[in-house]
Amino acid sequence: MKQIFHQGPISPSFIAESIAKHSVKTEIGAHNIFLGQVRADLIDGKDVAAISYTAYEEMALEKMHIIREEIFSKYSLTCMHVHHSLGTVGTGEICLFVFTSSPHRNAAIEACTEVVERIKSELPIWGKELLDDAGHQWKVNH
What we know:
There is one protein chain. The longest helix has 18 residues, at 57-74. The protein is an alpha+beta fold. Helix content is 32%, strand content 38%.
């Protein structure tokens, strides 16, 4: 099973390198990328300063493997990459990077959207919103 977890925020250089590695795959005509960024939400008058992500890793990786197989059977993809942060990610930093590639744009776009929605709804990953007053609350996925 492919590892999807990444300790801490996902750096812009890692994202750029991932894109650059695909230039040799000349059968690809389209890439679609989703970047999830930690928002500085206001909760009861306090700003979110960061989110601390935890996961039931083994179960999440098994479920991601199933999602990956279903997405590849549904869409004509060349490749798909998923990276999700664990640990603390500050506001403005990237916590989720989903990258789909296909010969044609529609498959890349639709597959990427579906993968993101399924990650949010099906994977056992939790975010604890760390507030600027040192308080916290558990994040609800929307």
